[in-house]
Amino acid sequence: MQLTYAISMLPLLNIAIILILLTVFATHMYLKTHIRTDLHLALSLGLISLLPLMLFGSTANIGEKLDFWSKPYHVAGLTVLLATLAISWLAEKREFSERLPIIVVTIVVACSIALPEIMAGIIFALSLIFSSLWIYLQATKGYKFEYIRLILFTVIAISVIGGSLFFSGAFAFLYSLLILTLLIYETLRYFDRVVFLLRSAGINSITDSLTGLFNKGFLSKKVEQLVQRGDISIIFCDIDNFKNINDKKGHEYGDKVLVNVGKVMKRIVNEQGFVCRAGGEELVCIIISGDAIKIAEKIRSSIESEENVTVSVGVANSKELGGQSLDQLGQRTIKKADLRMYIAKTSGKNRVVYTDEKKEESV
Q1: Are the CB atoms for 192 and 200 separated by under 8 Å?
Q2: Which candidate among 56, 129, 148, 262 keeps its CA 20 to 30 Å from the CA of 105?
Q3: Alpha-carbon distance 44 to 241, whole Å?
Q4: Any idea which of 167-176, 264-273, 338-347 has the lowest mean pLDDT?
Q5: Greater confidence, 178 or 164?
């Protein structure tokens, strides 16, 4: 077979370095989060990183010539496939049917390493083409379309076939670049998981675990931020007779009521503000645009008709307290809406109160 210069191996020498760095990163993540997935991934990548270390001994002299397809190229490809399998299996937690193409290809490539070089290269290429077709067929059945992986598998296979048939050093160098690109792509997929975890942690810190609405901490901070920019309204809702609901139908049913009421409020408020759970059966809306009184009445009537429960509602606007300082203005607006909710609660329930005067308090 035509010989090609060992300079085509240079990109492959980065594989071991990237895997070692990934191992260190996954270990660091485990020490910080104690998530076992990162521990298992660190152990897997650490073991896999031992495989490409032999590549450094394959090009002692850059000017040496090296057969294509020779063992170092095969080892590099097998290493990246193993890393792909580890990340797909551990970090992404895909269904078995989604991982199956990579599992099959990795096993075939691992077994073919003992075959003659030309045969091993052809089997490697055909395995990647087979995997690409499998990924495409899965996409037609509704699974996520991994188009980048499909493209990389296909062009890597083409480079291997081209290098084997046309004895071209350019194909060998192209293969090295592409297999390194595949490893970088899989590394980015692992980082996507890390970003998702960080984002989820941030979201969880400001949301209520039961209803998915913003929590009391978010409510307190958000109102103080918003009143610095302009007037806001607060709609303070309390589910009527909620204790009786829990006592008669159980807390599980009561939780369902809370979740459904929250969904109704969120749907009505939409982009006009934020819906928060202040605690217990108290749900609070921060309204930044629109007529808060009309929104409150729509919330009240919709909950009554859709969920077979009623709410007492108090409404207040920060401009009512505009003559006072901005310090704690948001909290004072919440308190004012809370007091009006109490008026609604003690004067018949299932009503909206938006003033302090009982004779004109409700709609």
Answers
A1: no
A2: 56
A3: 56
A4: 167-176
A5: 178
